[in-house]
């Protein structure tokens, strides 16, 4: 399934790398560099999937996730983080994320997690 994906990350390098991988998979990509911009893009463009960084200036990733959930309770949001602590994974899942993926992003893992999220199965 090809999808419209919103990448939210304050790192331009991370966005560029993720965009390249997603476009190679055939997805259409838009970007946001912070939480406020992400919410604007989400409202205007209604992406099929969001890949969301946890740590950004201005608004923490879980705040963005909560606001996206308010806009669309069935939104598919994958949280991407370098934090590998179990407590972080538990917090992300409790907040309603579709999946968690660890940075640095691995092409195979990204392909698997996005495919599962778009198909509605558990990644």
From TrEMBL:
Residues 4-118 form the Response regulatory domain. SUPFAM superfamilies: CheY-like. It comes from the Bacteria. Keywords: Phosphoprotein. InterPro entries: CheY-like_superfamily, Sig_transdc_resp-reg_receiver, ST_Response_Regulator. The modification 4-aspartylphosphate is found at residue 53. It holds the Pfam family Response_reg. GO terms for biological process: phosphorelay signal transduction system. This is Response regulator. It comes from Horticoccus luteus.
């Amino acid at each position: 399934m090809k999808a419209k994906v919103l990448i939210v990350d304050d790192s331009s390098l991370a966005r560029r790398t993720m965009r390249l991988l997603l476009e190679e998979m055939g997805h259409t990509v838009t970007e946001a560099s912070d939480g406020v911009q992400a919410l604007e893009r989400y409202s205007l463009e209604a992406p099929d999937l969001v890949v969301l960084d946890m740590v950004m200036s201005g608004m923490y990733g879980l705040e963005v996730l909560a606001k996206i959930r308010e806009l669309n309770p069935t939104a598919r949001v994958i949280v991407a983080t370098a934090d590998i602590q179990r407590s972080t994974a538990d917090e992300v899942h409790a907040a309603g994320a579709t999946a968690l993926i660890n940075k640095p992003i691995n092409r195979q893992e990204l392909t698997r997690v996005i495919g599962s999220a778009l198909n509605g199965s558990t990644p």
